[in-house]
Prior knowledge:
The protein is an alpha+beta fold.
Amino acid sequence: MKIDSHYQVAKGIREMIIYAPHNLLKDPPFSRMDIISCQNVLIYLEASSQNKIMHAFHFALKPAGYLVSRKI
């Protein structure tokens, strides 16, 4: 929904989302995720760390889940 000149996700949808701090290199991945949004994080890491995180994302997603990311 649009609020002033910005957009905000509807409250009912926000309440279905888990927001939590997470260390992608140290914490175990969540599991059975429908979608993972990873914007502007992998560009700051070396290839070996990027690879480790991508494997964790693969484990974390449901078989029909989506990974939303920018090209690295």
